[in-house]
Amino acid sequence: MEMMSYASSSTTTTTRVSQGCDVFLSFRGEDTRTGFTSHLYEALIRKRIRTYKDDWSLEIGNFIAPALLEAIEASRYAVVVLSSNFATSKWCLVEIAKVVECMERRKLNVIPVFYHVSPSDVRHQSNCFEQGFANHEANPEITPQKVATWRSAFAKVGAIKGLHVTPDKNESEIVSEIIRRILQDMQDKSSVNLSHLTKGLVGIESRVNEVINKLNMESNEVRFIGICGMSGIGKTTLAEVVFHVIQHKYQESSFIENIKDISKDHNSDLCKLQQKLLDDVLKGESISVRSVKHGQTLLMTKLRDMKVLIVLDDVNHADQFMYLAGGREWFGAGTRIIVTTTNADLLNAYRVNETFMCEELKGEEALRLFCQSAFVDGHPKHGYENLSDDIVKYTGGLPIALTVYGSLLYGKEEKYWKDMLKKVQEYQHKEVLGRLEVGYVRLDRHQQLTFMYIACFLKGRDKELVEDILTDIGMHSESGITDLINKFLIAIKFDDCVWMHDLLQQMCWEVLRRESQQCNGKQIAIKHRHDVLDILSSKPTVCLRFFTKSI
């Protein structure tokens, strides 16, 4: 069976051609298989560069197996080792013609190695190559057009500046130079790729680089990295960009998004997530997950020798961690697991190596993101500068709010802007509130009560005072505050005051307003903390009128 090889922790593992690879090796087996090509192949594997090398099985009868041509299509680089008998093989010439076709059509990077042959002889098909082409031309089963195609491909590869191996040169130095060129080109393309992927994403490049630094790509250890922050802050977007920038460095990769939404029905949905992860990294293998325990066993046994990149997006329960990435011993050396969550406690419980904290956009970055959605050229129109500043200020730098409001205001007249500003000061757009409410819904009832109480009365108060008040009404103040901090719903500022994002506070008020619509019209004015507790603790929901003055 055709195979493509990779590096693992201690052995060489294999996977199918259809998965794609970094390097395709083209060579004449009788000339270099056990010498130069073998050394080059092993060096590529040691550097964890995914490499395809045909070992005997693909030249069958009078045709070349389609899988070999597919391997060339799927590769990013082709190293063509041109040796004295290369042109005697029809299959080598079919390969080189396909390499040139891919080079011209999709920028396949070709590195010729002139192994004990002259580049000039390759370009002109002379000397040691002359007889090989003459034999093909004399073969009645090969059309003149096909031979002409091979000659043209041969000449084009010969014209590429490659590496010339002569008897007096150290072959290990040539191998090292090939590796250096490939790795350097990969690195350069990653930088270009980052610029492309982050187009239109304000302030994200520095954050992407910081996460990549935390991943410590050169280490062979299995590393877990957390990306956490409040809902709507941009965790998933950041993880997506990092994933696409670095995924080429891994044997296989999987991005599992919206885990909290998918895994509501515990067992069956976790099985689906395990199945997706296995399908992503074991393409071509027919494996069916029968239960979460079975899926756990499959992941542990199938991935332990593979270097993989996995993103678990929006994890909110320990079981999701346990059954999808339960331990470092599940994975091969060099594996990276990125987890996004609004719950820092989960990351602490599973001892992630490092955590990146997503924060709101500040100043110019927040204004730029808003303007990209609100204006054609990404800059405030004349007369809209102050209105833009006011909208941005009210969003508190939350990316989801900046994008939503920018889109709503795009192309609208000044009067519409002023009306919208008035509205957002009274209540938030339902899309923004809906995203933020996710964090509230995940809380247990005790945590919801604590959160509502702080939102209605205690925001901005001294932490010690807040704890005293919560204790006074029979709530577990210290643990309740810690829970909310770890879920990024509140924070303790430098002056030791309890802080909450303005939009989260608005979300709390909107939840209570919505609940009030279910009642019979009775209104109660919230003037004291006990009113809030009584209302939230009671089963009948009553209409509320808010008085936001301090207690």
Automatic annotation (TrEMBL):
- Which N-terminal stretch is annotated as signal sequence? none
Q: Which GO terms describe its molecular function?
A: ADP binding; hydrolase activity
Q: Which Pfam families match?
A: NB-ARC, TIR, WHD_ROQ1
Q: Which domain of life is it from?
A: Eukaryota
Q: Which residues form a coiled coil?
A: none
Q: Which residues form the TIR domain?
A: 19-186
Provide the alphabetized UniProt keywords: Hydrolase, Leucine-rich repeat, NAD, Repeat
What's the name of the protein? TIR domain, P-loop containing nucleoside triphosphate hydrolase
